[in-house]
């Protein structure tokens, strides 16, 4: 029997261009039959088609006619596509996706085509998105998602810990005004919603010492900015009584109250029934539920028994909020709330979130992500979402063995911390002195673990990993020209600059060796919260240290408007450093300014050796140029702190970092600094 005789076959598609929008058919068999891949279990369609062929086929094929009409709805008659081609992707029973480039336009465009009825083809049914959204419609969607979550998701049934914030806003009913309520012990099991939003420059409604009595009496609707107004209405339609809004529930000009409530953020967001996120609103005047501009076109060329529609898909929201593996990859232009530092913590701590994006609502919980255009949990357990991945890993913090099943060290927990910090450092603040307090809720979740003491954003366990941060020198990094130290923050911590930071990618911690030891830490806290901000901190370290001098070079990329390059001069060679604060020509002098011939001390943080070649068993303390084992490692790297003496403090300040990365293809001379440090004397240094 031939192979073709054993395959499920059929006579072939009626249309050889679109394959009847059924799962891909292969080329005909010698007997003229076609392999029926659907009977083999294949449910997906993926085609690349010539536009001219589809136009010709549309004369007789309804499916091709539908695709042409969908394209012309958005791009006009006879659109000019790059290479005259587009791709068609689908899955049986769901909507069809068309993907293409217009000629002379760089970015991809997408169209979603769907039916109002069930279908056995890949041109199936989709869910209509509300053309206009308001608090009432949003509340109905939220009720359905919440009901499903509470009834069906075991991992989301997290018991309330008997907590309610110090104050909440009573949303009122009927003609009653919203008012601020000071809670009591008997309210501790009461459900409330937390609001996450951008203040912007338009925040006109706050609670102060002077306005507190009035807020307790009632808040006139006309005084409430649109974002807060819609959030309060939304909670009314949910049938709940209370919402927590920071501007109203914290006394903004009372320093003690602010510190106390800021330290409670972890409890506020963790214990809320869910968080309402005004994701696409840049300020309180914009509103939670934005006007939508994504029309649905009814197509008129289809079969009489079907109605087909075309729209731009919500791929922008899907790719930005669902499908990024590293949180720093997200393009946030349409999601201003996602750029804010305070909101990052709120998002991570919340058990459930309803995101109000500009094009649809998205529900996120520990179990699933759903949206208006796909409410059937298509994104359930989506592996690519960095934030959801972080939240799941954080969910195991109460049981560290979830991280350390094959590793007795605490590095997996520190690795999660570094991932969170690196992502967090991308966020912006109105006041960068809030950097530590806005992370304190997350730090409090790590506190019960056996990872040592908390040193201004850094844990004492595995401290060498955490000291090896680098200012993100990527030209696309935010706020490069606004780089500055944050007052009070210690120079050795990532929180000391208002810039994005990155950490070395440490793939195999057991192959890291360090001689660095933390001997002492002294700090003056700015509040009673040990995970909050500091006004002064001093770290005493012991480690191998060598002396070097600063050399300043021409601007980066030879661009006069770029920062100057900075080097250390060592072993008659110059090695590029990344200053914590970019160095500018003719810039005012500061404690972080570097000048030619400045003397600096270089403190080795650790050495990483990655990948033995040919499974060679070697002594990890043997020299890198050991003649018995040439090229014994695939590569290794060793970061050094660059420290400059600060007479006013009688201590050093960190001014930058140098990252040596040695690989077999590098010259032997690149190994000289490492050999020099290997024989360097151990020193004790104080860093402020």
Note the quaternary state here: single chain
Measured between the Cα atoms of the first and last residue, the distance is 81 Å
Overall morphology? globular
Whole-angstrom Rg: 30 Å
Main β-sheet description: 8 strands, mixed
Decide which structural class fits the backbone: alpha+beta
What is the typical, i.e. mean, pLDDT?
84
Would you identify the regions where 5 or more consecutive residues have pLDDT less than 50?
A: 378-384, 630-635, 663-669
Instruction: Determine the fraction of residues in helical runs and give it as a percent range.
Output: 10-25%
How many helices?
Answer: 15
Strand content: 15-25%
Widest β-sheet, arrangement of strands: 8-7-10-9-11-14-15-16
Give the tally of β-strands.
30
InterPro entries: HET (IPR010730)
Pfam family, one: HET
Protein name: Heterokaryon incompatibility domain-containing protein
Domain Heterokaryon incompatibility: 192-346
